[in-house]
Amino acid sequence: MGDVVKDLTAGTVGGAAQLIVGHPFDTIKVKLQSQPVPPPGQPPKYSGAIDAVKQTLATEGPRGLYKGMGAPLATVAAFNAVLFTVRGQMEALLRSEPGVPLTVNQQVVCGAGAGLAVSFLACPTELIKCRLQAQSEFASVAATTSGPTGAGTATATMAAPAPVKYSGPMDVARHVLKSEGGARGLFKGLVPTMAREVPGNAIMFGVYETIKKYLAGGSDTSSLGRGSLMLAGGLAGGSFWMIVYPTDVVKSVIQVDDYKNPKYNGSINAFRKILASEGVKGLYKGFGPAMVRSVPANSACFLAYEVTRSSFG
User: Fold this and answer.
1) Looking at residue 283, what DSSP letter applies?
2) How far apart are the first and last CA of the chain?
3) Angle CA 277–280–282, to nearest 5
4) What percent of the chain has pLDDT over 70?
5) Quick check: helix, strand or coil at residue 261?
6) 30-52 confidence digits (pLDDT tens)
7) Angle at the Cα of 130 (from 276 to 248), degrees rounded to 5?
8) Which of 76, 197, 189, 201 is closest to 134 using CA atoms?
């Protein structure tokens, strides 16, 4: 029970540190992922990450970079408590006897199990976050095309779904519960969320332990300094996104898709349509901000986790 309390507390502190450091990068990532494909011959709304930052600051101010933070902040305790506690309990199950370090393969298994568990918390939280982060992208996108059809002329308007102007996280939740299928609507995108969290956390925790052991020169990593822990955490976080980024793009576009007139009918369909219309690079929209975010955010998370846990003695 003592280990559970340690993991609950340390995971909460680590998650808060990660969110505060990394959320502005995440906002830019989601904006780039969710911006609609421009009409032929027209440039996209954002030419890249730096342009997205500039436009966000110009139109929404610094607060725009923290849009959607309420939902993950409100649930960061539960999310990281589950992640680190499930991982800790799986470590206890796999450990041959108390105090014996686990192998890297065993850490990978523990990370995968923890990733599966947190998927059920991550999905509704990120749906709310992505709706808030991306709603401004759909507000101004409308393209009108016209051309001859037979003897007459037909005009068609190609417009993004009319956005719901959400006032905050609770407003998003109320809208989804009322108009998008009840509680089931909050779990839109669960499959790609699992496809991200399970392998992503498996790799992340495996890389984290591998780097710690390398820096410590053996299996006893208890004497590592804060700089080493930050380095291991930052590289581990980067490995997460290197492996699963395309699934995160699929998750984001599904979660912000219009409920009444959906563009995608599932994860595979979304993957194929992105690939067909934008090529491979479409599956890596926002990759730069995600990678830039992952190093400092996960450095802060793992350092806060380790320091908090060690403070219990």
Assistant:
1) G
2) 15
3) 60
4) 88
5) coil
6) 888 878 778 888 888 888 889 99
7) 45
8) 189
**Chain centroid to CA 121:** 12
Answer for the pair 66, 24: CB distance below 8 angstroms, yes or no: yes
Burial 207-221 (b: 16+ CB within 10 A, else e): bbbbbbbeeeeeeeb
Specify whether the CB–CB gap between 288 and 25 falls below 8 A: no
pLDDT at position 138 is 59
Amino acid in position 158:
M
- The residues with which 148 forms a beta bridge, in sequence order, are 153
Domain ranges of the chain: 2-140+161-310
What phi and psi, each to the nearest 5 degrees, are found at residue 235?
-70, -35
Residue 248, phi then psi, degrees to nearest 5: -70, -35
Q: Which amino acid is at 67?
A: K
The string of pLDDT tens digits covering residues 48-83 is: 889 999 999 998 898 888 887 776 676 776 787 789
Inform me whether the pLDDT recorded for 308 exceeds 50: yes
Cα(293)–Cα(290) distance, rounded to whole angstroms?
5
Which residues have CB under 8 Å from 298's CB, separation 6+? Answer: 18, 22, 204, 233, 234, 236, 237, 238, 240
Q: Name 149's bridge partners.
A: 152
Question: 245: closest CA among 54, 71, 23, 29?
Answer: 29
DSSP states of 184-230: GGGGTTHHHHHHHHHHHHHHHHHHHHHHHHHHHTSS--TT--HHHHH
> In Å, what is the CA distance from 191 to each residue of 140, 188, 255, 294?
30, 8, 11, 22
Residue whose pair of structure tokens reads 């280990």 in the numeric block: 3
CATH class as words, domain 2-140+161-310:
mainly alpha
In order, the DSSP letters of 36-91 are PPPPTTPPPS-SSHHHHHHHHHHHH-GGGGGTT-HHHHHHHHHHHHHHHHHHHHHH
Question: Which run of H or E residues covers position 7?
Answer: helix 2-34
